[in-house]
Structure formats: C-alpha cells, structure tokens
Amino acid sequence: MGGATVLAVAGGLLCIFACLAISGDPELVRKTAWSIGESKFGGGKIYLGLSKLVIYDNGDKVTDVSWKNVDCDALPQLGDDCEDCKDSARGIVQTAIIAAVTHVPTICTYVQRCSRYGDRNCQKTLGIVTGTLGFVSTLSALLSFNANCIDVGSDFFDTKPGRGYVAISLGIVLTFLGVFFHVFLKTPPATYAGVAKGADFDDSGFRKL
C-alpha cells in the first residue's frame, strides 16, 4: 500500500493547492484560478477563483470582485452563463475543502494497511467505500463547474481550465487509483482469523500454518 499512500499524499497536496483559489488575494486567485477567460480582442484576461473573479489587461490588474457582489446584468461580456457560473463557483467551495480534508483519513487508511497487524478487512472496505463516494461526489461538482464556467460560449472570451481546476481534477484521480489497491490487495488471513498479535507471520505478512 506504499504506492497508494504516495498517490494519496500527492492528491491531497493538489487539492490543497486548488483550495487556495478561495483566497481573497487577487494575485493568488490569478495563480490558482479554476477557469481563465482570454479576450478575443486583446490582452484582457478574467481569472475565476472560488471567492472572486479578477480582471487583468495586458498583465496589469484592472479590478477584482467578490462573487457575491458580481452583477451579471452589468457584465454582459461574461456571457449568458454568468449566473450559473457564479452559483457553481460559490457552491463548490465546500466540496473543494472536503476533498482536501478527507485526504487525511484516506492516507491514514493506507498507512494502516501497510502494517501487518493493521491490514484488516474493515480498513479495506472503508477505503473502497469512502474512496469511491468521495470521487463520485467531487467529480459531479467538477463537471457542473466545467459546464457553467469553462465549457461555455462567449462573444468576448475563450475559456479554459485554470490551474486550480486541473489540480483538483488530477488530485481526485490519483487518490481514486488507491481504491484499486484496496480492491486487489488481499488482507492476510491472520487478520480475520482472530490471531493474536504475537502470531508467527511469513515474509508476506500471512500467518505460518
């Protein structure tokens, strides 16, 4: 399970990076934006974070606005999906935080299974169930964000995924790969045979008969 642990740690770090887009700092939002809109008519760019959007023109910040203060009627250049994107960006904050925080118990499960005496069926089942549910729920939220904030049509901007969106997408995929480790890696028979801690194990962690 060492490989799965490494994947989970990497996935957790990527999810933490994605959460930085919640920041109110314009420069940090620019670096960790989940969606980027590039002007079709010049050097203007819009960086969509999870708490605000930041507008740059030829590398210079023009303005930044919190999502709660965004008036889509006053910003027609954001397109017809502005309200939906606004709701998705604000709504996915909790999902992003949960995705990052839940990596802690996920990693603990992998570490537990690395131990001969901790590799138990309950840990295996827990890892499979929580890993699958976490992946599906986060993926659903990401697909909604993509539909409303990335894969949109605009007469003013061409949009693409930002670093934050790419990071959390890769992060949950890496962590989900660990589910396959749980599925295919068997627990030692001793762990479900009620064997005491002092039992005699072979080099593979299975009890000697």
UniProtKB/TrEMBL annotation:
Q: Which UniProt keywords apply?
A: Membrane, Transmembrane, Transmembrane helix
Q: What is this protein called?
A: Uncharacterized protein
Superkingdom field: Eukaryota
Spell out where the chain crosses the membrane.
6-24, 125-145, 165-185
